[in-house]
Specification:
The complex is a heterodimer of chains A (347) and B (306). By secondary structure, chain A is α/β, with parallel strands linked by helices. Chain A has eleven helices and nine strands. Chain A has helices at residues 15-23, 38-52, 140-145, 165-169, 177-186, 191-208, 224-235, 269-272, 275-280, 300-316, 339-346, and strands at residues 65-71, 75-85, 88-97, 104-110, 150-154, 212-222, 239-245, 287-292, 323-328. In chain A, strand 6, helix 7 (224-235) and strand 7 (239-245) form a beta-alpha-beta unit. The N and C termini of chain A lie far apart (55 Å). In chain B, helix 1 (17-23) links the parallel strand 1 and strand 2 (32-36). Chain B has a 17-stranded parallel sheet that branches. A seven-stranded parallel sheet of chain B has the order 4-7-9-11-14-17-20. Chain B is mainly beta and 306 residues long. The longest helix of chain B is centred in the N-terminal third of the chain and has 7 residues, at 17-23. Classes of the chains: A alpha/beta (347), B mainly beta (306). The interface between A and B is medium-sized, with 16 and 19 residues. Chain B: Keywords: Aspartyl esterase, Hydrolase. Chain B: Its EC number is 3.1.1.11.
Chain lengths: 347, 306
């Protein structure tokens, strides 16, 4: 077996890039000491982020439609569709608690890799009802609606109903991330940019609902849904409370060190910020970060480093009580031990 | 690594799993993998304790099925009842076994004329069961001793169907109750901190009207913990049973943490069971559970034979 010293460093393809990482990244990272500089720092990085995410499309009317309405013991589940951008329709489930007599919070709940929105709302991949959780997402949409909040669960682009025909034909657990990522990159767009925009439009949908209190909007996501939650919460000020599950780490130790889906890569981002810098932008809003100690694709060691960075921002803004973690014995999955109560408590 | 294939149709090294195991030399010099092809293997299987480091791989729990039908009330040739511990379909007695992608089923059925009928009897240390289905009714899985790790397994039964003195982690497993009954019946020794630990499992049942307890102590210090586990309506609100002995309430170690679902409402749980705090829950890491700090210095008084 080869040792690292057996290969000349200068022959290694990553060597110069590792040097670059260590010397000249994070030109817009969170490095401020004066709380009065925070807003300016955040706004500048936000502008840059939107630019490198590929910009946002033209704002068009939402034209929401309810396709299906089903009543359960404690909640109503609607299947809806709305227009996110030209040529982009978003199918979503909306879960509405029954017996509410005042306005309640609204939460955007974002799935990770898997079979899309169904897994979050208690449906099998083929649309059959199920009460038992499946996979790593733990029916989290149902957990939230059962705590009296409205939940919108869109299919993230590339998953569920939003896949190319050949991917749909290959089964439920496929996605269209790879081709989507390559098309987007060559056209100056990013998958993340498209997903963040869909979240902003999902919030438009929520805030148009009569029972939702527009000042109490939360966002929760697991894995790639955690990624979208991170970026959306850094950009859209309407999001007031945030839960990021099985994602927060460093780009270097997660998506650059472990094989990950193509949808994760945002060209040029490290020139400006590491992942934790983006999380710092969420301060001082309540932010809960979930990490499984056996999550091999978002390693706990780097999750700890990232968390310490984020803590600096909350400390600077004297909001340390609004930052918390759920560290659990487990793999790449949603824990929920603190998450649902976190949303309930702060929204 | 030695490879052995087994199939029913004769295109492999052996036609039965036991023949394949018998062919392996004791204390193998290298790891042995047995590939068990699709098929129903009607046999009783024993992996003796001098054949460690075996790996047995099926083609999936729906395709590779090992089954037999001995049961406790069965009468043997000497006109004696079998009793519980002669019923297993599969005895896993050696250490460091890895069993994957297959089903072990005791097909005896259930009822007073059947009694206990074990599917898997495991006494090997450091054994891994990955994507294995254990099907039975009363006493499906018996862990006599040692440490075992079950990952993404399906285990069904009704009475005491996960029982014994071993230290076992069930990670991402589905534990299915067929009828009224008790999921666990641990007999954890007093000195062992952990017995049966369920992490991120689903507790399901065949009917929402079933009444099922999380466990009852087979021996006074039985330990069981359910963590981040989803529980359906069949789990009784009181949660745990004392096996008709209030004395057990002082010693049994039954814990829960952060469970979810309609059966996980903790308000009515028996007072002698415990909800772990967040910091206590952090002790339940797989490393911690499986680390046994055990020194042994035999103390024998010299015999004076004069």
């Amino acid at each position: 077996m080869l040792k690292k010293s057996d290969v000349k460093n200068e022959f290694r393809p990553l060597y110069s890039l590792e040097k670059l990482y260590n010397s000249s990244i994070r030109s817009m990272g969170f490095e401020i000491d004066d709380p009065s500089d925070f807003t300016q720092w955040k706004e500048e990085l936000k502008k840059k982020l939107i630019e490198i995410l590929g910009g946002f499309p033209e704002l068009i009317p939402l034209e929401p439609q309810v396709l299906e309405h089903k009543e359960f013991n404690n909640y109503i589940r609607e299947k809806v569709v709305f227009k996110s951008a030209p040529y982009i329709d978003v199918p979503a489930y909306v879960l509405i608690p029954k017996n509410i007599n005042k306005r309640v919070p609204g939460v955007v709940a974002l799935h990770g890799h898997g079979y899309g929105k169904n897994d979050v709302v208690g449906l099998w991949e083929d649309g059959e009802e199920r009460s038992v959780p499946d996979g790593y997402e733990g029916n989290f949409g149902l957990e939230i609606v059962n705590r009296g909040m409205v939940v919108i669960v869109p299919d993230q682009i590339g998953f569920g109903e939003r896949r190319e025909i050949e991917d749909i034909q290959n089964g439920y657990n496929t996605n269209s991330c790879r081709k989507l990522a390559f098309w987007a990159q060559l056209l100056g767009k990013t998958v993340m940019g498209m997903r963040v925009w869909d979240v902003m439009r999902s919030i438009d949908y929520l805030t148009n609902l009569p029972m939702v209190d527009n000042e109490r909007i939360g966002c929760i996501g697991i894995s790639s849904g955690g990624a979208t939650t991170l970026f959306a919460s850094a950009i859209d000020e309407r999001i007031k409370v945030v839960v990021i599950s099985a994602y927060l780490n460093t780009f270097k130790d997660s998506i650059l060190s472990v094989r990950h889906c193509e949808c994760n890569y945002i060209p040029g981002i490290l020139k400006y910020a590491e992942m934790y810098d983006i999380a710092c932008m969420i301060a001082p809003k309540p932010l809960l970060i979930e990490s499984g100690i056996r999550d091999h694709i978002f390693p706990i060691e780097a999750a700890n480093i990232a968390y310490e960075h984020v803590k600096r921002a909350y400390k600077l803004l004297k909001a340390e009580d609004k930052l918390d973690r759920d560290i659990f014995e487990g793999r790449h999955r949603l824990s929920g031990c603190k998450a649902y109560d976190w949303l309930k408590r702060w929204l | 690594m030695q490879k052995i294939t087994v199939s029913k149709n004769g295109d492999s090294d052996y036609k039965s799993l036991q023949e394949a195991i018998d062919s392996i030399r004791v204390h193998p010099l290298e790891h042995v993998t047995i590939f068990l092809k699709e098929g129903i293997y009607e046999e009783k299987v024993i992996i003796p304790d001098n054949k460690p480091d075996l790996r047995i791989v099926g083609e999936g729990p729906r395709k590779t099925i090992i089954r037999f039908g001995d049961y406790a009330e069965k009468i043997d040739e000497n006109n004696k009842k079998y009793g519980t511990f002669r019923t297993p379909v599969f005895y896993a007695q050696s250490d460091n076994l890895i069993i994957e992608n297959l089903t072990i089923e005791n097909i005896a059925g259930f009822g007073p004329d059947i009694g206990q009928a074990i599917a898997l009897y495991v006494s090997g240390d450091k054994c891994i069961f990955n994507n294995v289905s254990l099907l039975g009714n009363q006493d499906t899985l018996y862990s006599a001793k040692g440490r075992q790790y079950f990952y993404k397994c399906y285990i069904e039964g009704h009475v005491d169907f996960i029982f014994g003195s071993g230290t076992v982690v069930f990670d991402h497993c589905t534990i299915h109750s067929l009828r009224d009954g008790f999921i666990t019946a641990p007999s954890t020794p007093k000195e062992n901190k952990f017995g049966f630990v369920f992490l991120d499992c689903n507790l399901t049942s065949s009917s929402p009207n079933n009444i099922v307890y999380l466990g009852r102590p087979w021996r006074p210090y039985g330990h069981a913990a359910f963590i981040r586990t989803w529980m359906d309506t069949h789990i009784i609100p009181t949660g745990w049973d004392n096996w008709d002995n209030v004395e057990n309430e002082k010693t049994a170690r039954f814990f829960e943490y952060c469970n979810k679902g309609p059966g996980a409402i903790i308000e009515k749980r028996v007072k002698w069971s415990h909800q772990l705090t967040t910091s206590e829950s952090l002790e339940y890491t797989v490393e911690n559970i499986f680390t046994i700090k055990d020194e042994w210095v035999p103390n024998v008084k010299a015999q004076n034979n004069n």
